[in-house]
Amino acid sequence: MDKFKYYCLIISGAFSEVFLVEDRTHAGTLQAVKCIDRKGLLGKEDSLENEIRVLQRLDHPNIVKLLDVFEDKSHVYLVMELVTGGELFDRIVEKGSYTEKDASDLIRQILEAVDYMHDRGVVHRDLKPENLLYHSPDEDSKIMISDFGLSKTEESGTMATACGTPGYVAPEVLAQLPYGKEVDCWSIGVIAYILLCGYPPFYDENDSVLFQQILKAEYEFDSPYWDDISESAKEFIRNLMCKDAKKRFTCKSAIAFPWISGNTALDKDIHASVSENIKKNFAKTKWKQAFNATAVIRQMKKLAMNKEDHSQSPHRPTASASLHT
């Protein structure tokens, strides 16, 4: 791993660490290297191989890229595109204003990336806000899909494993029925719902009750939170969060819907209500990760200043790796 100059630890997990690095062969290009301890891979080798295989077949502007893979006797190293803009909910809370049109644009980017995946036979199986990251701190930054640890290729066989995150998982998964890429479309519907009100469509402290709500597709557009949301947005969500997977919107049909491709998304500012509900319902539990993301940005600025001080070097650091373990 002499190819890289290591700067700082981004995230530390039980069996993996992510470091901010600079590629010595391309001065100024910052990336992230995920170092995975082989001890933590015992019995899970197939899962990592699957994640690598999936990422190697994907190349889309809204999907975090796997740039290279190395290994030695003790570790496997994944070189990833650097993503420094933070998580979806954090950015919404920090915004000065936020509208349906903003939510529509976010969902459009997610749909286009997932449609690209589905066309290539890849099902993510764990789409949720925590896996949606902004590429950079810039106001107009694009959104990126990360964490393909549970993803699956359709040619690997029928999917029936109950996996994903409670609250975002589709009814057919909980019913332990064979399922396909439709499960991702359901999850996008759940994300769209949250983006417009700040709370989840399904919730209960008791998982059994929560799962029953999902199995029955029981959700409401509660007043007053949904009073100022367009009927088009609600219809869009109903078509994605449809209990019958065969009748559920595909990514392509969702992209073609007027709330995404037309002009039915409203311009009314809903920031106050949505951000307040996000803060209540999605309490920040990743202070260490948030701190380390800040450390990365600080390191990038320091490197940029050093480059300016040494004017003989024409290179500037360029953000190019997911901050997630």
UniProtKB/TrEMBL annotation:
Residues 4-260 form the Protein kinase domain. Its EC number is 2.7.11.17. Pfam families: Pkinase. It comes from the Eukaryota. Residues 305-325 are annotated as: Disordered. InterPro entries: Kinase-like_dom_sf (IPR011009), Prot_kinase_dom (IPR000719), Ser/Thr_kinase_AS (IPR008271). It is an enzyme of class 2 (transferase). GO terms for molecular function: ATP binding; calcium/calmodulin-dependent protein kinase activity. SUPFAM superfamilies: Protein kinase-like (PK-like). Keywords: ATP-binding, Kinase, Nucleotide-binding, Serine/threonine-protein kinase, Transferase. Signal peptide: none annotated. PANTHER family: SERINE/THREONINE-PROTEIN KINASE (PTHR24347). This is CAMK1. It comes from Mytilus coruscus (Sea mussel).
